[in-house]
């Protein structure tokens, strides 16, 4: 069929204007003269959505007519960010949209983009990675569905009051969200609780079946994901939980009105809110329910797609490759087994063959507190049938282990899915590792540590299972959209090809000694910094000088990321200025941003700490022109788009071995910021690619940290060797940054001088040394600009197109789909 409709959905400015006019009138019930900016945002978004439809439907139709393998990316989080500008860019109609808006009296597209509310359906790196990967999948023409949860409330909005974080409910849907298409006719049922029973089937074999105590309905809400200048439009399928009707009616009949309402409230609550804990597993019942809910809906949906196309269920691995984004969807291993065995009456071996050939698992953290473990009682009360299946998976696995390691009971205890030490628990990483055909880490160093530290026995058992795929970020959002100034410069000098082939940025290297070009490079950065300076003034009241070095750390607040190390260094610079010992120090604007998990006391105190230092520093006339400290409230994707392009220095200062990859580090480097960082996560690869001479390295290595641990780390020894650090700690203790309150930051000081679990004191001296090298480098601006240019030129590797290419080739075995939209 022909989906091309230039009359109704043309890509020229006139068509876009007509589409907006139509939606204002018929969809929004507004007349142009009275339309608000939000109305115009909605009208333009609907008009753009119309223009995605042809490609979206043509992709679906191509998959129906010519089935081929498709990626199912299962993730509890998709931090997709604002949609309008991304879709305009990928369609190639930014200018047409701007022209259309002018007819409504709007001078710049930016004014409309500013009113867009972003769906905060993720915590941080893991959720944002999933969004970059969906965009790259579509751009590489790989058929894919991202399966997740349509949280009614995403990650909380952050306010800063008296220096403290305050959390506000994120009501992202309140103004209406034009990018989703609810598909109630494709709803799925999911069970919870109850019991299992055995029965004899019509062939006379013993089987088990699950009689759940309650049900929820999942309603898919589809978000089209268009690739860059291609005809493929993939989709994000987010499940919203609804109450079941049948049970309601039954309850009404027996007169249990309140019981019926309770079940309704209970199941609706399922997709109500995103858990804002990034890195701490609290083992909450509702969270396990959320996980099973979206995983079950998604697998049922995949099976149904085979049925609908008349494809046999045995061919599941031929048509679907299922990627687990961390262990949050790891219940998929048991749920796919249940669907195949209980619903499709398949025997165990066949079902296991299908499951283990379809599923792969990505690990995103080594932090023990983030590794998901479910209390056995909780698990069995919610998913009794799944627990039976997990026991059988485990029994067969342990049998295999016994044959391989005769008489070795210790290894069985260690690798078992069931943790029997203390109160019993289900280890989701073990379930995922046993069920998956590939297990990957997210940066070279991290993938090595997965093999040597996290799952060494599994890696010895199945060496070919373990692999690395270094993370990447999409150059469309993080360069082309976020940094139009740099994009224009790149387009003029090396052509537009870099947007879909980031390795082409290498062509920039030819300009590294071109004075004029380097000046142009520096001026481009400066003009972007002016915009951020204005944002900072509007949102924090602090006036910052765009000609100072913008030194930036934006990411979730966590002790292992060591924002407090950065702050201590700032205090030292402050003291040097006060003491007249700051000759050669670059004038800096030190910028922080990030949310703390609401229950993470130390992280919240770190935010208070940053704001305390900011208040003292910014109020001191001695600091004028030399030092400013800013905490940007409510850091999110939209703010990130303003921050990365405007940064000179990227702070990537986690304790070695703790940051699995980092992806912000890549966004900074691509946009020409230099990195000051430890040998952690993808920093290692960034440094290798940009060259050691274009990277400010400091800090202990993973091995050195381990040695310190083994020999009994004593932070006091490091503090004693550094008078400047002692002075900084003394000032904090005296209440110099807390209006004389000497108690406020005591828990932080006690932590650093006591156990210092993240080796802040051990790395302080070297960090200070590296910061001095930064200051020195800043004095030779042409040299700085050259280093900046080389960072952009050599970080094409970190395009998520490269990462997705590796997944396709090494893990998924999928290829592109060609969609023809010509008539
Ligand atoms: C953990 C948990 C634990 C249970 C409660 C909910 C929850 C939510 C998020 C997480 C964090 C998972 C790990 C994670 O986000 N890792 C980050 O993944 C990024 C993408 O691979 C990577 O760049 C970061 O280094 C890594 O910290």
Give an account of the 3D structure.
It is a single chain. This protein is an alpha/beta fold and 823 residues long. It has two domains: 67-82 and 118-470 and 806-812, Glycogen Phosphorylase B (Rossmann fold), CATH 3.40.50; 475-584 and 636-798, Rossmann fold (3-Layer(aba) Sandwich), CATH 3.40.50. Strands 1, 2, 5, 6, 9, 10, 11, 12, 16 and 17 form a ten-stranded mixed β-sheet that branches. A six-stranded parallel β-sheet has the order 20-19-18-21-22-23, with helices on both faces. It has a three-stranded antiparallel β-sheet with strand order 13-15-14. Helix 12 (332-343) packs across helix 15 (384-404), helix 14 (376-382) packs across helix 15 (384-404) and helix 23 (563-578) crosses helix 30 (723-733). The longest helix has 29 residues, at 37-65.
